[in-house]
Design goal:
By secondary structure, this protein is α+β, with helices and mostly antiparallel strands. About 35% of the residues lie in helices and about 15% in strands.
Length: about 250
C-alpha cells in the first residue's frame, strides 16, 4: 500500500470518527421511563371570591396524547409529538347553573354544559379513547403501557379531579400523577401563548408545547406530584353529598 493510500485511509477514518463524535454530542436523548403522556388542563365551575376549597365541578375535560418520535431500543428519547386529542364539555350536577364569572373566565356557555354528558359518562368515553390507543385494557381498565399525566401545577388532578370523583361517586385511578403557562413559555424562550387562556383545550395544547421543549432539552420526564384520592374537604358528606352548611356562600 502506498503512502498516499495510507494517508487517504487515515483521513477517512479520522473524518468518520469526527462525525460519530459530533452525532453523539448532538444526541440529547436520555432514558425515558414513560411511553406516553396525557396533558390535561380542566376547567371547572367557580364563583368570584371563592378559593380552592370550593366544591368545583369539572366542565371541560381536554387531553392531548403525546408519544415519542425517536425512542430507541434502549428507551432513550427527546422528541415528543401530539398524536391525538380528546375533548368533552361536562354537565355539572350539584350546581348546574354556571355563574357569569365562570362563563366570562372560561368562555364556556350554559348551553354547552347543558347538552354535555355527565362526568361519569365522560370517563367512560375517555376510557374508550385510552383503550383505542393501547394504553389500557378495554375490559379491566388496567394500564398496558407506561403513561403519565401532565398538568400546569398540581391543582387539576390533585384537587379538581379528586373533588369531581367524590361528587360523581367515581373511583380515582391510582395511575394519576401530576409559574403559569405564559410564564413557562417565556422562561423556555418559546413563542407566546397560543389561543385563549382558560380554554381547557388551548391551555392543554400550550402545556404540550412546554413538555415537548423540555424533552428536546434532554430532560427526563417523571411525575413530581403524588395524588391522594382519599383527600377530603369539610363540605364533603357521604359520597356524592355536598354539605351546603359547610360552605361560605
Amino acid at each position: 500500500m502506498s503512502d498516499k493510500s495510507t494517508s487517504n485511509s487515515s483521513s477517512q477514518l479520522a473524518r468518520k470518527d469526527l462525525i460519530a463524535k459530533a452525532a453523539q454530542k448532538q444526541d440529547r436523548r436520555v432514558k425515558q421511563p414513560y411511553d406516553a403522556f396525557l396533558v390535561l388542563d380542566v376547567e371547572a365551575t367557580c364563583k368570584e371570591g371563592t378559593g380552592f376549597d370550593w366544591p368545583n365541578e369539572i366542565i371541560e375535560w381536554p387531553v392531548c396524547l403525546m408519544r415519542w418520535k425517536d425512542k430507541s431500543d434502549q428507551g432513550k428519547a427527546c422528541q415528543l409529538e401530539i398524536v391525538d386529542e380528546f375533548r368533552s364539555f361536562v354537565k355539572p350536577t350539584w350546581r348546574p347553573q354556571l355563574s357569569q364569572f365562570c362563563m366570562d373566565l372560561t368562555g364556556i356557555t350554559q348551553a354547552q354544559v347543558n347538552s354535555a354528558p355527565t362526568f361519569q359518562k365522560v370517563l367512560r368515553m375517555f376510557a374508550s379513547f385510552l383503550a383505542s390507543h393501547g394504553l389500557i385494557d378495554p375490559k379491566s381498565g388496567r394500564s398496558i403501557q407506561r403513561f403519565c399525566w401532565c398538568s400546569d401545577g398540581p391543582f387539576d388532578i390533585r384537587d379538581f379531579v379528586v373533588k369531581q370523583c367524590f361528587i360523581s361517586k367515581s373511583s380515582t385511578r391510582s395511575h394519576i400523577r401530576s409559574l403559569n403557562i405564559p410564564q413557562q413559555l417565556q422562561a423556555l424562550g418559546l413563542p407566546a401563548f397560543q389561543g385563549r387562556l382558560h380554554s381547557g383545550i388551548d391551555d392543554t395544547r400550550n402545556i404540550a408545547r412546554v413538555v415537548t421543549e423540555l424533552a428536546c432539552r434532554g430532560v427526563r420526564l417523571e411525575p413530581k406530584t403524588s395524588i391522594n384520592p382519599n383527600r377530603r374537604w369539610n363540605w364533603m358528606g357521604k359520597p356524592g353529598e355536598v354539605l351546603e352548611h359547610a360552605l361560605l356562600l
